Amino acid sequence: MKNHNSILLIITLFLSACTTKKQESKNNDSPTIVSPYFGQKPPGLIPEVFAPGIVSINGRNEAGISFSPDLDEVYFTAHKKDEETSIYFSKLKDNKWTPVKRANFTNGGKNEELYPFVSLNDKRIYFTAFDSIFSDEKIWYVNRLEDSWSDAIQLDSPINDDLVFYINQAKNGDLFYTSISKGKMYYAPYKNGEFPEVQEVELEFGHHGFISPSQEYMLVYARNKENEKRKDQDIYVCFKEKNETWTKPISLGNEVNSNFNDACPSITPDGKYLFFGRDEEDGTANIYWVSTDVIENLRPK
Predict the structure, then answer these.
(1) What does the mean pLDDT of the chain come to?
(2) How far apart are CA 292 and CA 301, in angstroms?
(3) Which of 113, 285, 264, 250 is nearest to 178 (CA)?
(4) Residues 6+ apart with CB under 8 A from 147
(5) How far apart are CA 1 and CA 251, in angstroms?
(6) Of 146, 158, 186, 240, which one's alpha carbon is 20 to 30 angstroms from that of 296?
């Protein structure tokens, strides 16, 4: 497969890749800065494109971004037209972000790697890897070594008895992910360092879900439910009730959800910012970010 967008085209529930608007860029060099976000001014309640010319680059699709707990490393999915989908990264060293490079965790063992997630204890990166669409999408991981990462390991868990992707983890270690074959959200409770069983997350709808660190809410995306004539994907939030059930999905509203596909949500480890993708008319993509106040403002009273 040469284009990650084909995943979401073939799998009817996943109609679009995680994308956003393009920004002009002269080069891919990182600025000398101390900020954990490439010197970007933090956004308020209006989403803004993230790190134009560094992470978000014209002619490339970016998605599925994840930061280390100390906010000094960033990993994300990207590809240009007719390229394999890969994970890219940058690190903050000596007050300067390193140039963005391809990770290649499987060292060519798999054709494509995508949707990285840095564990909240900073010891592991989970990601999806596969050779061909809708055939062998599995969860893999690498363990942190002193100044590098281990060889990639396929996760030994019933999670991988299915075709799965978009994995992320809560503070207590539970893993949440999307079943491609079923088009639903599942999770695997963390038990003594392993994930021996899986359970469906009982949501009314939604996939590509991202759990908040404390499991107070989950973000998902799905086809716009407010207007039957629209076919674009929007982001919704489900809040956890006291009885452990989930509220009906609530749209993040017009500030976050545009008339294009808005998808692949993720929350920074400190819980302050929501990152997501947005399609553009020409099919290219960038990553946006916005304050998580947009979520808190929707929390049921």
Answers:
(1) 89
(2) 17
(3) 264
(4) none
(5) 33
(6) 186
CA distance 252 to 219: 9
| Distance set, CA 140 to CA 24, 124, 128, 137, 152 (Å) | 34, 10, 6, 10, 6
Tens-digit pLDDT profile for residues 215-227? 999 999 999 999 8
Neighbours of 215 (CB within 10 A): 15
3-state helix, strand, coil in the chain (%, to 5): 5, 40, 55
pLDDT for residue 5 is more than 50 = no
Q: With cut-offs at 50, 70 and 90, classify the pLDDT of residue 234.
A: very high
**Could you give the angle at the alpha carbon of 273 between the alpha carbons of 212 and 32, nearest 5°?**
130
Q: Is the pLDDT of residue 198 over 70?
A: yes
Take residue 189 and report the two structure tokens written for it: 């409770």
240 three-class SS? strand
What are the residue boundaries of the structural domains of the chain, listed by start?
5-296
Please tell me the predicted confidence (pLDDT) of residue 10.
Answer: 36
Q: What is the pLDDT of residues 72-121, one digit of tens each?
A: 999 999 999 889 999 999 999 998 999 999 999 999 999 999 999 999 99
What is the Cα 117 distance to its own chain's centre?
Answer: 7
Question: How many beta carbons lie within 10 A of that of residue 205, not counting itself?
Answer: 17
Does the domain made of 5-296 have the CATH classification 2.120.10.30? yes
Residue with tokens 């560094």: 54
In this prediction, residue 12 carries a pLDDT of 36
Closest by Cα among 24, 18, 34 to 56:
24
Beta bridge partners of 140: 127, 154
Q: Which residues, other chains included, contact 74 with Cβ-Cβ below 8 Å and sequence gap of 6+? A: 55, 65, 66, 67, 68, 89, 90, 91
